[in-house]
Amino acid sequence: MMVTVGCGPFGRMVILGDSISYGMCAYEPANQWNQVVAQLLRKFQDEPLTVFNRGLPASVISPRCPGYTQSAKPSLIERYQQHCIELRPDLVIIAEGTNDMRSGMPVQAYMEDLTTIVTDIQAQTDALIVLVGIYHQVYGRGGNDPATRPIWTKWTPDTPVVFNVAVGLVAQKCKALFVDAQAVLGGADWVLHPDACHLNDLGQVLIGNAIFQRIAVHASGAARKTMRIIAENDVSTLNTGGADTDADIQQLWAAALARYQKQADEKDKADK
C-alpha cells in the first residue's frame, strides 16, 4: 500500500479523459463525480481547490485507437501537455479508456499509451495521480447497440473487466493510485444511464466517493482541517455524537459516563 504522507492539501486538480471524466449524464452538476471529489476535498482540507475539468466527450487515448477517426480530437496523448502539465496540477485524476475499450483497441497498446501519459506527467509535475478503472457496460442497448453504434461495440462483456485490470496494472507500475471501478459499482445496471454506457447520478456519486476515499487515506494533507478542528475545539468522546438519539439514550449514556468517570477517579487516587 502506497501511503503518501505529507501529500496535500491540493490546490489544482486536473481531470483528464473522455465523457466519463466530463461528467456526462449526471442531471445535477453537483453529482458529477469530479465535483463530488472536489466538494469532499474542500470540506476536509484547509486550502481552496481549483478544478480544471479537461474531459473531452467521444475522445480516445491516442491516434492508434481504432475509434480515432470517428472520435473527438485531439486524443489524450496529443493534448495532455496543454490540458494537464501546463496547468501545474498537484492532483491529476485520469478516467480514460471507455471508448478505447468499446472500439476494440488492443489492451497492450492502451496500457503503453496510458503509461506514457502518466510517467510524463509525473516527470514534469509533482502531482499525485489517480487512475480510474473501467466499469461494466450493457451490450446491445443505447450507445452500445451494434446496429447504430458499430464503431463503439467491438467488445464483449469480459472486455471491461480486462481493461479495468489493465488500468490497475499501469497504476501499480507507475506508483499511482487506482480506483477499481468494477468493484465500486458491483455490476449494478441501475447505476448506469439508460444509454447503457454512462453513469447516472447515483453511479457518479459512488465513483466520486471512491476516488476521494483513495486520495484521503493516502494523502495526509486531506486531513489538515479535521486535525485543526480537533485541536482547536478539544473534540473528544465527551462532546461528540448523539445525532438522532432520544432522551432515553442520552440518559443511559450519561449514567454510564458517570460510572466510567468514577472508576477513573478511583484509579487515579489509588495510583497516587
What does this structure look like?
The protein has 272 residues and is α/β, with parallel strands linked by helices. It folds into two domains: 12-225, Rossmann fold (3-Layer(aba) Sandwich); 245-272. Helices cover 44% and strands 9% of the residues. It is built from ten helices and five strands; from the N terminus they run E-H-H-E-H-E-H-H-E-H-E-H-H-H-H. It has helices spanning 19-22, 33-44, 76-83, 98-102, 107-124, 159-174, 181-185, 201-216, 224-233, 247-271; strands at residues 12-17, 50-55, 91-95, 128-132, 177-179. The chain has a five-stranded parallel β-sheet with strand order 2-1-3-4-5, sandwiched between helices. Helix 2 runs parallel beside helix 8 (201-216), helix 3 (76-83) packs parallel to helix 5 and helix 5 (107-124) runs parallel beside helix 6. The mean pLDDT is 95.
What are the salient characteristics of this protein?
272 residues, Rossmann fold, 2 domains, alpha/beta, 5-stranded parallel beta sheet
The chain-level mean pLDDT equals 95
Main β sheet profile: 5 strands, parallel
Strand order of the largest sheet: 2-1-3-4-5
The helicity comes to 40-55%
Number of E strands: 5
Low-confidence stretches: none
Into how many domains do the coordinates divide?
2
Q: Please tally the helical runs, counting DSSP H or I stretches of 4 or more residues.
A: 10
Under CATH, the homologous superfamily of the largest domain reads SGNH hydrolase
Listing every helix as H and every strand as E from the N terminus to the C terminus, the arrangement reads EHHEHEHHEHEHHHH
Q: What's the level 1 CATH class of the largest domain?
A: Alpha Beta
Tell me the CATH architecture of the largest domain.
Answer: 3-Layer(aba) Sandwich
* Spatial gap, N to C terminus: 45 Å
SS-based structural class?
Answer: alpha/beta
> What oligomeric arrangement do these chains adopt?
single chain
CATH topology of the largest domain: Rossmann fold
State which percent range the strand residues make up: 5-15%
Radius of gyration computed on alpha carbons: 23 Å
Given the C-alpha coordinates, what overall shape results?
elongated
